[in-house]
Amino acid sequence: MSCSSCCAAAAASSPPVVLARPRVRFTASCSTRTDQKVLFLGSKRFPQITHSPSSRASSRLSRREVIAFAGQQSWDIGRFVRTLYFFNGPPNPLKIVESIISSFTGSASSEAPKKMETSDVVLVTGATGGVGRRVVDILRKKGLPVRVLARNEDKARSMLGPDVDLIIGDVTKEDTLDPKIFKGIKKVVNAVSVILGPKEGDTPDRQKYKQGIKFFEPEIKGPSPEMVEYIGMQNLINAIKNSVGLSEGKLLFGLKGNLSGKIVWGALDDVVMGGVSESAFQILPTGSETGGPTGLFKGTVSTSNNGGFTSIRTKNFTVPEDLSAYDGIELRVKGDGRRYKLIIRTSYEWDTVGYTASFDTTKGEWQSVKLPFSSLRPVFRARTMTDAPPFDASNITSLQLMFSKFEYDGKLNPTFTEGPFELPFSSIRAYINEPVTPRFVHVSSAGVTRPERPGLDLSKQPPAVRLNKELGSILTYKLKGEDLIRESGIPYTIVRPCALTEEPAGADLIFDQGDSITGKISREEVALICVAALASPNAVGKTFEVKSTVPFSEPYVIDPSNPPPEKDYEVYFKELKEGITGKEALEATPA
């Protein structure tokens, strides 16, 4: 990296100027002679400082300052060098001059920049199971991009097609779930479940199993319920958490916690262009709206020496932040009536494009400022770059706050005034757009809270409840897996179907909460419910049981010539409440 990068920040704040004969020689001390030679830079005159032994000895100017323009304020070369070293390592003088020259040339672009690319890939786990493969089919029919997680590639491709977008992995084996392979996934339907089967064996296409546990003596086939339902859930959540996002967003800066590790702020002002503006980052111990600590961007801005901007910028993050699960950046600031900029970079190179958004503040008020990623403008040396790559939210390397005289492409900041300024900011976080929809839909089971429920007549309960211990505490670990989801911070929906059947969808349904109902429901119907939940704000944070109104003793069939109408599952979702799980009966507390 080179110190030319500092000039890129300056360029975000400087208007284009025509340069004539750009030969400027800077020195560490200055002569007091009045007959010095002058070079022309647009309408500005740069003195060419020369020295003799006597003039060096008699100079009264500090060796840390250089006269930038004839008759203007002196330039603090010491602060300039410190800025370069703080962000960029040893300076390269040639790069400095090249960047300064480039920043004053070129014209504004009238073309629109490239739009940010977005991804809405849905991951289906347990995709070769009865519910999972139906979810894949429904998503494909809706034209939604689907990726599946499966243990057996041959089985997955034979069942779902040779062109299926496939991840080979096993939730019980953490080393097969590298978070990098889940990049681009926005939502998950988890249909992974421990495998049950008849003790006496089954047909190759599992016909006995498909009749339901009610009709055979079951046993666990494969990994235990603890490995699949609990440890497997831990592994899956850890793998996809960064990709799908958190309801409350991801904190990038905040004095109550810092989820991205150490963030180091430093001043990056117009000193890199010969200016005299100066800023700093401070922590105010009692400056927040609640009386706690807050960050502070403060300084004094001046247009002397063709300057006019101040900023604070983070050092490059050790590991880039992946914010692809989110829709923008939210700042909590105390305004002063001025317009500021947030600049986000996606490259470790210094002298590179900054994706930029301006925001206005209200004087004396704490306010939340939301800046959608879609509103970011690619800017390089004060000009919009129409050929810049689209913003990549998965590879954020640094953040910058700026107060500048200039906007973009020669336009001016209408709120700019010279002098001191202060912008307290208590947090910077990535956010998900409202209304939030579920990012993780999980297929669990009715009955998960019943094995330990006091006063329950087990003889009237489904076989899985009666045989919970014999089946490796299957329902107990399913409940533990649910709790991991609820505690993860991911926007979720948990669907608890009653006994699953191979019957078609279409029967009337009963949605309930509190884990008390028994009955049956079609696997196809459960798949439809899961897909509908992905798009429903009313399904977020809800846990519910569901069954059809058809009794076990009656098969459900449909007339192909008169199929049932499609259901509006939103009607059911709206009636559900958050926080009801059935555990209330275990804890002897009201819902």
UniProtKB/TrEMBL annotation:
Occurrences of domain NADH:ubiquinone oxidoreductase intermediate-associated protein (ranges)? 265-423
* Tree of life domain: Eukaryota
Coiled-coil parts of chain: none
Which segments constitute the NAD(P)-binding domain?
A: 126-206, 438-537
Gene3D superfamilies xref list: Galactose-binding lectin, NAD(P)-binding Rossmann-like Domain
What Pfam families does the entry give?
CIA30 (PF08547), NAD_binding_10 (PF13460)
What InterPro entries does the record point to?
A: Galactose-bd-like_sf, NAD(P)-bd_dom, NAD(P)-bd_dom_sf, NADH-UbQ_OxRdtase-assoc_prot30
Q: From the Swiss-Prot or TrEMBL record, give the protein name.
A: NAD(P)-binding Rossmann-fold superfamily protein
State the species of origin: Urochloa decumbens
